[in-house]
Write a structure and sequence with these properties.
By secondary structure, the protein is an alpha+beta fold. The chain folds into two domains: about 5-125, no CATH class; about 130-250, Alpha-Beta Plaits. The protein is about 40% helix and about 25% strand. It has helices spanning about 55-60, 60-65, 70-85, 105-115, 115-125, 155-190, 220-235; strands at about 5-15, 40, 45-55, 90-100, 130-140, 190-195, 205-215, 240-245. Helix 6 packs antiparallel against helix 7 (about 220-235). The chain starts with 6 loop residues before the first strand and ends in an 8-residue tail after the last strand. About 25% of the residues are buried.
């Protein structure tokens, strides 16, 4: 690697806005220590939104140390996401990974351009589309009233326990079936749909965590489908949370 200067080039996202460059004059709070956002032309693929980053903070050696600071890492992640979200009105936004850094502008342009055909596929996939997130959680069942007296026999006690386990098992099975149907229903409105990794463990009540890539023309229909689904699932002891619109974070892998 050649000797670095006092700054490196931090790349936040690629923006495709045919006809005019995106406005980066009023960007939200930047990553700690970064200069103002600016544009690098990427030919027919649009522009890179970049900023100068001090090598003392964002050079390879400095980052290796700073990545152990979770508070600093969290601030950087939130600021990075805010810059990407600011560009969401463009025809297509391709977010870069956190800490996509090059030695200078020329290397940034060359490094992104090397992705070539894969990058073109991503731009076509996300053009005029945004991401919506949908989470479905199970709502704890109300506890049945405590019996006034214990079962008279051990058999009666075991029978009551089995009945309770069977009821809980049936409820979980019904919820899983409803959630699978919900994913298929929303996927029909979206251009693409993907399940996201969910936390494990018996304590988690998360039944579905999914991302949907939705075209601008289908946004109203998608939101209406979520509202209808929410009313249906609430009757089945599930809650629905929808977030978005977001940049297409889950749909930028080639």
């Amino acid at each position: 690697m050649s000797r670095m200067g006092s700054t490196v080039t931090y790349v936040c996202c690629l923006v495709d806005a045919p006809g005019r460059p995106p406005d980066v004059s009023n960007m939200p709070a930047r990553l700690p220590g970064l200069g103002k956002s600016r544009l690098l032309p990427l030919g027919r693929r649009g522009w890179l939104v970049v900023a100068d980053a001090p090598t003392a903070r964002y050079g390879e050696a400095a980052l290796e140390v700073r990545l152990q600071n979770m508070a600093w890492l969290s601030r950087c992640a939130l600021a990075h996401q805010a810059v990407v979200a600011h560009c969401l009105s463009a025809a297509a936004v391709v977010p870069m990974k956190l800490f996509t850094i090059f030695e200078d502008d020329d290397r940034a342009l060359a490094g992104i351009a090397r992705r070539g055909k894969a990058l073109d596929r991503i731009i076509r996939r996300v053009r005029n589309r945004v991401e919506w997130g949908v989470r479905i959680r199970g709502v704890p069942a109300a506890r049945p009233p405590r019996p006034q007296a214990r079962p008279a026999t051990g058999t009666g006690y075991l029978t009551a326990r089995k009945r309770a386990r069977d009821t809980a098992r049936q409820r979980r099975s019904r919820s899983r079936s409803e959630v699978e149907g919900a994913f298929r229903l929303l996927a029909r409105v979206a251009a693409e749909a993907r399940h996201r990794e969910m936390p494990g463990g018996r304590e988690s009540r998360l039944l579905m965590d999914a991302a949907f890539l939705v075209g601008a023309a289908d946004a109203s229909r998608f939101r209406a489908a979520v509202r209808k689904l929410s009313r249906t699932l609430e009757r089945g002891a599930c809650s629905v949370e929808v977030t978005g619109p977001w940049p297409p974070y889950n749909f930028i892998e080639s």
